[in-house]
# Entry
Amino acid sequence: MSLVVVGVGNRTWHSPFESMATASAYGILQSAGLLFFAFAGYARIATLGEEVRHPEKTIPRAIPRALGLVVVLYAVVGLVLLAVLGPSGVAASAVPLLAAAEQAGVGWIGAAVRVAAVLASLGALLGLVAGVSRTMLAMARERDLPRLLARVDERRGVPQAAQVAVCVVVVLLVVAFDVRAVIGFSSFGVLVYYAVANASAFTQDAAHRRWPRVLQVLGGVGCLVLVATLPWGAVVTGVCVFAVGVLGRLAVGAGRPRSQ
# Structure
């Protein structure tokens, strides 16, 4: 694909697709794997099933709409950044949105961009706390995690202990580790459990099936391919953590009766 660079006044505008001329398939797949964590929030909706009215109708409607809206939003932001800064400019900037605003001559909106970024981060944190805490609640009920995490606040109906545990883990990860490394490991974990989810959906009978099995096959294969292209550090760390989790589950959970 030919490169397109257009000068307007003292500013330069790039073709959003210019990087495709030199991009490799491996690079594209690795980028997709690293960015996958940014799409994981749509599945958090499903973890709130017991707190939603008519979940059998609400959740199947909410997930495609939420995912579709996010894809459009990400695509618009990505194309604008590439058009203003170009691939090298985006890669070189720690704050590409602010850099794009300066390049476009609207640097005065920098304060609004910062506020929007903080609000977006808080929204992502709330989604993480709500979704992961419900997963911890389910695991605690099955005795895969300490029973303390299965406690539900009687008045509010939320798993407070699990929510506090998630908050503590998130703070420790942000303070103690490079966020970029955490993103790589997060993408590994998300892709693996989505592969498991696709495999589980494949086993559903016709009465409970919503989508054809071929989609689960494609989804599972796609997840595994993206896992294989992640940075090796993230893969090795992920495999080690999974191994510790499996061994811990076998050691602690052996002989314990499981809830019905």
User: Anything to note?
Assistant: The mean pLDDT is 81. The beta strands are 5-8, 11-14.
